Amino acid sequence: MKKILASLLILICTPFASFAQSSDIVVSGEWARPILIAGRPGSAYSHIENTGSEDDKLVMVTSSVSPRLEIHEHTMTDGVMKMGKVDGIVVPAGGSVDLKPGGYHIMIFDSIKKYATGEEIDLKLTFEKSGVIEKTVTVFSKSPN
Ligand SMILES: [Cu+2]
Questions:
Q1: From ligand 1's centre to the CA of 53, what distance in Å?
Q2: Alpha-carbon gap, residue 105 to 8, rounded angstroms
Q3: What is the pLDDT of residues 74-99, one digit of tens each?
Q4: What's the gap in Å between 95 CA and the centre of ligand 1?
Q5: Architecture of domain 24-139
Q6: What separation in Å is there between the alpha carbon of 73 and the centre of ligand 1?
Q7: pLDDT digits (tens, 9 = 90+) for 21-62
Q8: Do residues 114 and 38 lie in contact, with contact meaning Cβ atoms separated by under 8 Å?
Q9: CA 127 / ligand 1 centre spacing (Å)
Q10: I need a labelling partner for 27 at 20 to 30 A (CA). Which of 99, 104, 114, 133 fits?
């Protein structure tokens, strides 16, 4: 009986144990623009919240749809909107950042397949402290948020 109780306890406690170690990063509202011709660039967006007490940083994004994803930002220089690669996006402790058109975004280059509105793609977001967060991202022609 003791043995059964012990294993029951392990069963009950295991989900909580893994929950305690789970990420402080919450990714929500993710969406991607369609890529109608393979090889053409695309982009993806999301809201990233850090519920932890330490800053974290999005440092890498990968996907099965392309071997080359980059983290980009848009900047206004002398009235000209430019975009360029950044080495990551800091998500402040207790704060959040938005990846959105005209701001930070995930750039998908050299896509090996095309995908249209309503389809889904996979994204793996790697954070310095929280590790990898996998997301299934729905394709929209404009922001659904
Ligand atoms: Cu870009």
A1: 30
A2: 45
A3: 998 899 999 999 999 999 999 999 99
A4: 23
A5: Sandwich (2.60)
A6: 6
A7: 468 999 999 999 999 999 999 999 999 999 999 999 999 999
A8: yes
A9: 19
A10: 114
| Contact predicate 111/42, CB 8 Å | yes
Lookup result for tokens 């090996």: 112
Spacing, Cα 105 to ligand 1 middle (Å): 6
CA dihedral (114, 118, 120, 126) in degrees, to 10, reads 100
Residue 20 CA to ligand 1 centre (angstroms): 35
Task: State in Å: Cα 88 to ligand 1 middle.
Answer: 13
The region that residue 20 occupies, defined by phi over 0 for left and psi between -120 and 50 for alpha, beta otherwise, is: alpha
Could you tell me which residues come within 8 angstroms of residue 21 by beta carbon, excluding any fewer than 6 positions away? none
Does pTM top 0.85 for this prediction? no
Distance CA 125, CA 105 (A): 12
Rounded to the nearest whole angstrom, what is the distance from the C-alpha of residue 131 to the centroid of ligand 1? 23
Structural domain spans, the chain: 24-139
- Give residue 129's identity as a one-letter amino acid code: K
